[in-house]
Amino acid sequence: MMGLSTWFVALGLMVTKTNADKILPVYNTLDEHIKTKVDVRKYLALYKSFHIFLGLSFSFVGLFLFNTMSQDAEIIFFTTYPVIAYIFFIIRSRFFFKGIPLKTIIDSVF
User: Fold this and answer.
1) Any idea where the domains of the chain sit in the sequence?
2) Angle 89-20-110 (CA atoms, 0-180°, nearest 5)?
3) How far is the C-alpha of 37 from the C-alpha of 58, rounded, in Å?
4) pTM for this entry
5) 3-class state of residue 35 by DSSP
6) What is the pLDDT of residues 49-83, one digit of tens each?
7) Which of 16, 35, 56, 66 has its CA 20 to 30 A from that of 47?
8) DSSP per position, 42-101
C-alpha cells in the first residue's frame, strides 16, 4: 500500500514544465501543432495535484481501513479507488485536449 501511495506522489512530483514534453501522458504523444493549443501549465497543475492527492488519500484511507475494517474492505478499496480516480482524471483531462479522440487520451494515461 505504501509503495503504491509513494508511486502516485512521485508521479506528481517528477513531472515539471521542462520535462513535460517527454514524460507527461497524452501531451507527449501530440503533434507539435496540437501542443501549441494545449495550456500545458494548467494541465500540469491538474496532473500534479491529482497524483499527489491520490497518493496521500490512498495512503490515509488505506491505513484507516487496515486498522479498522476487514481485509475484504481493504481489497475492495485498493482495487477500485485508483480506477475510479483515474476515470475522474480522464474526464477532467478532456477539457485540455479538445478535438483529440477519447481513445487516445485513455491509451496515453494507461
Assistant:
1) 2-8+31-109
2) 40
3) 33
4) 0.83
5) helix
6) 999 999 999 999 988 988 888 888 888 999 999 99
7) 66
8) HHHHHHHHHHHHHHHHHHHHHHHHHHHS-HHHHHHHHHHHHHHHHHHHHHHHGGGSTTS-
